[in-house]
Amino acid sequence: MSEGSAGQRTRMVTWRDPREGVAAAKSLSGLEYLRAIVRGEVPGAPIAELMGFKPVEVSEGRAVFVVEPAEYHYNPIGTVHGGLAATVLDSALGCAVHSTLPVGAGYTTLELHVNMVRAIAHDTGRLTCTGEVIHVGGRVATAQAKLTDASGKLYAHGTTTCMLFRPPAAGGRE
Protein backbone atom coordinates (compact mmCIF):
# COMPACT_ATOMS: atom_id res chain seq x y z
CA MET A 1 0.00 0.00 0.00
CA SER A 2 1.29 3.45 -0.81
CA GLU A 3 0.21 6.94 0.21
CA GLY A 4 -0.56 9.59 -2.38
CA SER A 5 -1.57 13.23 -2.14
CA ALA A 6 -3.87 14.35 0.68
CA GLY A 7 -3.45 11.01 2.51
CA GLN A 8 -4.95 9.01 -0.36
CA ARG A 9 -3.77 5.40 -0.39
CA THR A 10 -3.51 2.86 -3.18
CA ARG A 11 -3.20 -0.92 -3.21
CA MET A 12 -2.54 -3.26 -6.13
CA VAL A 13 -4.11 -6.70 -6.20
CA THR A 14 -3.09 -9.54 -8.52
CA TRP A 15 -4.50 -13.04 -8.91
CA ARG A 16 -4.23 -16.09 -11.12
CA ASP A 17 -6.88 -17.16 -13.62
CA PRO A 18 -9.53 -18.95 -11.51
CA ARG A 19 -10.35 -21.28 -14.42
CA GLU A 20 -7.11 -23.17 -13.60
CA GLY A 21 -8.54 -24.09 -10.21
CA VAL A 22 -11.96 -24.94 -11.60
CA ALA A 23 -10.37 -27.37 -14.07
CA ALA A 24 -8.25 -28.99 -11.35
CA ALA A 25 -11.22 -29.36 -9.02
CA LYS A 26 -12.98 -31.65 -11.49
CA SER A 27 -10.38 -34.40 -11.13
CA LEU A 28 -9.53 -34.15 -7.41
CA SER A 29 -11.35 -34.92 -4.19
CA GLY A 30 -12.19 -31.87 -2.10
CA LEU A 31 -9.31 -32.60 0.28
CA GLU A 32 -6.77 -33.11 -2.56
CA TYR A 33 -7.95 -29.91 -4.25
CA LEU A 34 -7.70 -27.78 -1.10
CA ARG A 35 -4.28 -29.18 -0.23
CA ALA A 36 -3.10 -28.25 -3.75
CA ILE A 37 -4.29 -24.68 -3.12
CA VAL A 38 -2.45 -24.53 0.23
CA ARG A 39 0.75 -25.75 -1.50
CA GLY A 40 0.33 -23.11 -4.23
CA GLU A 41 -0.03 -25.67 -7.03
CA VAL A 42 -3.56 -24.53 -7.84
CA PRO A 43 -4.75 -20.92 -7.63
CA GLY A 44 -6.88 -19.98 -4.68
CA ALA A 45 -9.95 -17.80 -4.83
CA PRO A 46 -9.47 -14.29 -6.22
CA ILE A 47 -11.54 -12.93 -3.29
CA ALA A 48 -8.81 -14.18 -0.93
CA GLU A 49 -6.22 -12.13 -2.82
CA LEU A 50 -8.49 -9.09 -2.82
CA MET A 51 -9.18 -9.27 0.92
CA GLY A 52 -5.75 -10.52 1.99
CA PHE A 53 -6.52 -13.90 3.57
CA LYS A 54 -5.32 -17.39 2.73
CA PRO A 55 -5.78 -21.05 3.64
CA VAL A 56 -2.83 -22.46 5.59
CA GLU A 57 -4.00 -25.89 6.66
CA VAL A 58 -6.62 -28.41 5.62
CA SER A 59 -7.52 -31.90 6.75
CA GLU A 60 -10.69 -33.93 6.37
CA GLY A 61 -13.50 -31.89 7.91
CA ARG A 62 -11.24 -28.98 8.93
CA ALA A 63 -9.90 -25.84 7.24
CA VAL A 64 -7.72 -23.08 8.70
CA PHE A 65 -7.34 -19.59 7.20
CA VAL A 66 -5.29 -16.59 8.34
CA VAL A 67 -5.74 -12.87 7.77
CA GLU A 68 -3.82 -9.79 8.88
CA PRO A 69 -6.39 -6.99 9.37
CA ALA A 70 -5.31 -3.81 7.63
CA GLU A 71 -6.46 -0.26 7.17
CA TYR A 72 -7.94 -1.14 3.77
CA HIS A 73 -10.44 -3.40 5.60
CA TYR A 74 -11.87 -0.43 7.52
CA ASN A 75 -15.46 0.76 7.49
CA PRO A 76 -16.30 4.49 7.74
CA ILE A 77 -16.39 4.44 11.57
CA GLY A 78 -12.78 3.35 12.01
CA THR A 79 -12.84 -0.39 12.60
CA VAL A 80 -12.48 -3.40 10.32
CA HIS A 81 -15.69 -3.98 8.37
CA GLY A 82 -17.66 -7.01 9.56
CA GLY A 83 -17.60 -8.28 6.00
CA LEU A 84 -13.97 -9.35 6.47
CA ALA A 85 -14.87 -11.63 9.39
CA ALA A 86 -17.95 -12.92 7.54
CA THR A 87 -15.97 -13.66 4.38
CA VAL A 88 -13.14 -15.46 6.18
CA LEU A 89 -15.66 -17.44 8.25
CA ASP A 90 -17.61 -18.37 5.10
CA SER A 91 -14.39 -19.53 3.43
CA ALA A 92 -13.23 -21.68 6.36
CA LEU A 93 -16.70 -23.15 6.82
CA GLY A 94 -17.16 -23.97 3.13
CA CYS A 95 -13.67 -25.43 2.78
CA ALA A 96 -14.19 -27.61 5.86
CA VAL A 97 -17.24 -29.06 4.11
CA HIS A 98 -15.47 -29.25 0.73
CA SER A 99 -12.64 -31.25 2.32
CA THR A 100 -15.05 -34.13 2.92
CA LEU A 101 -16.31 -34.41 -0.65
CA PRO A 102 -15.29 -37.00 -3.26
CA VAL A 103 -14.22 -36.29 -6.84
CA GLY A 104 -17.08 -34.76 -8.81
CA ALA A 105 -19.02 -33.47 -5.81
CA GLY A 106 -19.59 -29.83 -4.95
CA TYR A 107 -21.45 -27.60 -2.53
CA THR A 108 -22.98 -24.18 -2.11
CA THR A 109 -23.72 -22.16 1.00
CA LEU A 110 -27.42 -22.17 1.84
CA GLU A 111 -27.15 -20.31 5.14
CA LEU A 112 -24.41 -18.39 6.93
CA HIS A 113 -24.80 -17.17 10.51
CA VAL A 114 -22.11 -14.87 11.90
CA ASN A 115 -21.67 -13.49 15.42
CA MET A 116 -19.23 -10.61 15.90
CA VAL A 117 -18.10 -10.49 19.54
CA ARG A 118 -15.45 -7.73 19.50
CA ALA A 119 -14.13 -5.07 17.18
CA ILE A 120 -11.20 -5.79 14.88
CA ALA A 121 -8.63 -3.08 14.11
CA HIS A 122 -5.58 -2.90 11.86
CA ASP A 123 -3.38 -3.41 14.94
CA THR A 124 -5.28 -6.50 16.18
CA GLY A 125 -2.63 -8.68 14.58
CA ARG A 126 -2.93 -11.90 12.65
CA LEU A 127 -6.26 -13.67 13.03
CA THR A 128 -6.82 -17.39 12.54
CA CYS A 129 -10.13 -18.81 11.39
CA THR A 130 -10.69 -22.51 12.00
CA GLY A 131 -13.68 -24.21 10.42
CA GLU A 132 -14.83 -27.71 11.38
CA VAL A 133 -17.57 -29.92 10.00
CA ILE A 134 -20.41 -30.78 12.34
CA HIS A 135 -22.36 -33.08 10.00
CA VAL A 136 -22.17 -34.28 6.39
CA GLY A 137 -25.24 -36.01 5.00
CA GLY A 138 -26.41 -36.97 1.54
CA ARG A 139 -27.63 -33.50 0.54
CA VAL A 140 -26.78 -31.15 3.43
CA ALA A 141 -23.71 -30.44 5.53
CA THR A 142 -23.18 -28.15 8.52
CA ALA A 143 -20.03 -26.63 9.97
CA GLN A 144 -18.86 -24.19 12.65
CA ALA A 145 -15.89 -21.80 12.80
CA LYS A 146 -14.11 -19.40 15.15
CA LEU A 147 -12.00 -16.33 14.35
CA THR A 148 -9.34 -15.81 17.03
CA ASP A 149 -6.13 -13.86 17.62
CA ALA A 150 -2.73 -15.29 18.55
CA SER A 151 -3.66 -15.49 22.24
CA GLY A 152 -6.90 -17.34 21.48
CA LYS A 153 -9.18 -14.31 22.04
CA LEU A 154 -12.43 -14.74 20.11
CA TYR A 155 -13.45 -12.03 17.61
CA ALA A 156 -16.24 -13.78 15.70
CA HIS A 157 -17.81 -17.18 15.25
CA GLY A 158 -20.30 -18.67 12.85
CA THR A 159 -22.10 -21.62 11.40
CA THR A 160 -23.15 -22.67 7.93
CA THR A 161 -25.53 -25.00 6.20
CA CYS A 162 -24.39 -26.16 2.76
CA MET A 163 -26.25 -27.99 0.02
CA LEU A 164 -24.22 -30.82 -1.47
CA PHE A 165 -24.12 -31.78 -5.14
CA ARG A 166 -23.04 -35.37 -5.57
CA PRO A 167 -22.42 -37.16 -8.87
CA PRO A 168 -25.06 -39.75 -9.70
CA ALA A 169 -24.16 -43.31 -8.72
CA ALA A 170 -23.03 -45.53 -11.60
CA GLY A 171 -26.11 -47.08 -13.15
CA GLY A 172 -28.36 -45.20 -10.74
CA ARG A 173 -30.83 -42.38 -11.18
CA GLU A 174 -30.05 -38.71 -10.59
Description:
The structure is a single chain. It is built from four helices and eight strands, in the order ββαααββαββββ. It has one domain: Thiol Ester Dehydrase, Chain A (Roll). It is globular. It has 174 residues and is an alpha+beta fold. The mean pLDDT is 94. Strand 1 and strand 2 form a beta hairpin. It has helices spanning 18-25, 30-39, 46-51, 82-98, and strands spanning 2-3, 9-10, 53-59, 62-67, 106-116, 127-136, 140-148, 154-165.
At a glance:
The chain is an alpha+beta fold and 174 residues long. It has a single domain, classed as Roll (Thiol Ester Dehydrase, Chain A), CATH 3.10.129.10.
Core attributes:
two-stranded antiparallel ribbon, 4 helices, alpha+beta, 6-stranded antiparallel sheet, Thiol Ester Dehydrase, Chain A, 174 residues
Q: Poorly predicted ranges (pLDDT <50, ≥5 residues)? A: none
Give the total of domains. Answer: 1
Helix vs. strand class: alpha+beta
Helices and strands, in order, run as: EEHHHEEHEEEE
Number of strands: 8
* CATH level 4 superfamily: Hotdog Thioesterase
Mean pLDDT, as a whole number? 94
